[in-house]
Amino acid sequence: MLPEIxxxxxxxxxVHTIFLLEAKxxxxxxxxxxxxxxxxxxxxxxNDGMAHLNMISEQLFLVAPPKETLSYNDALEWLRRKGHxxxxxLVKYKVKNIQVMGLTPHGLHTLALAEGLAxxxxxxxxxxxxxxxxxxxxxxxxGQNLVAKQVEELSVLVGAVFKARDLVNEPVVYLSAExxxxxxxxxxxxxxxxxxxxxxxxxxxxxxxxxxxxNWGSVDTPTFNVLEYKPTKAANAKPIVLVGKGVVYDxxxxxxxxxxxxxDSMKCDMAGxxxxxxxxxxxxEARLPVHVIGLIPATDNRPGGNALxxxxxxxxxxxxxxxxxxxxxxxxxxxxxxxxxxxxYEPQLVIDLATLxxxxxxxxxxxxxxxxGTADEETAAxxxxxxxxxxxxxVRFPLWxxxxxxxxxxxxxxxxxxxxxxxxxxxxxxxKHFTTHPWLHLDIAGPAFKEGGEWNYRGKGGTGIGVRLLYxxxxxxxx
Length: 479
Ligand code: BES
Ligand code: ZN
Ligand code: ZN
Description:
479 residues; alpha/beta; binds ligand BES; binds zinc ion
């Protein structure tokens, strides 16, 4: 459930409260009663910086981050995770409304704690018969060096992340490519950005050979989605284009996914699209002064009908020919057409997000995003900073010219797979053939979806990775 997140000028008395302390001694002024202070101090020491005081009518929490040992970004993440821990306790005690009170001069610390609380509140109940929510109804935030605008921005972001998670968690039986377009249309009118989409006929007129080929085995139409947010006072003269992989389900196609269980979570193969959509919701809602265009090629990847076969040669929208040697390397085929489509905008920067390779996930796990590209160092550094602050961290991989050899084909201009090695990079090398503008490719295959248990405030299932990152990056870019 999306909690109501509100800013308070002054704290409320006698309500469930989390006190964020700068120093443990502040427990004295908060609690006064020496026995309670003693209890809190002991627990802050023994319980990793958190003390819970069950006062029956009020649940009180004291939080004190270990300040000497944590870097700025690590402290923010520590607080988000502490917010998650406390959210679990609040659910246990059936608390529905909580106040976060920052007794620290670091307003962003207070915000991070609230962020962790709020993001932990996500539930996907659509397909449960019992739709009873156990989440918080409201989070009020008050604190030093904190203004209403920051709390409003947090509320917008949490809503956008939840939207992205919802889309990722929707199974393909509901979320076909066309349904994805209908969902975007609704979000566009609710949140205030423009949107149009093409179906198969128009996609054929555009000769998007990659998107069409991946769709050959499907009974559903592919869609090509164009989102735009163009404020009157945009800080950028040329647009930023955000491209998201929208494979609503990836069976692998005729090169059917071979490993047992490896298909189970493949409804997540549109997490790149979800990140772009979530970012648009946040950008439009917060009226960020940035001109952005979103491109989402969407289809399922299935082995039916006239499915694309290994050995086929297809002609992409750009005119380049591709020998398809593995139909499970489909993401790059649809992204290539989107990257080429982006050329018409003469963009300042193109960023694509995609659950593109198992190799990226194997290289660094769910802990980070593998990225690469041609954009300059300054832009890359800005993105990495945004990644570090949001804890949607990035690691840059090389695009050395040597890797070009991996993609040479005997019959076509290039083939769609490299060798056994450097799989995340060869996917990037493939994409590089289709863009001439400054470009960054983010492979989110690792962190996009959490199978099994919960992953702190990121929850289980779709994580919504990329939304907070893109928003933070674009805010920095136009600052
Ligand atoms: N959608 C997958 C990548 C993926 C794997 C996403 C795990 C999320 C979790 C992608 O389309 C794919 O199948 N890639 C292949 C490429 C290979 C055939 C060159 C892969 O990584 O195995
Ligand atoms: Zn695949
Ligand atoms: Zn895929």
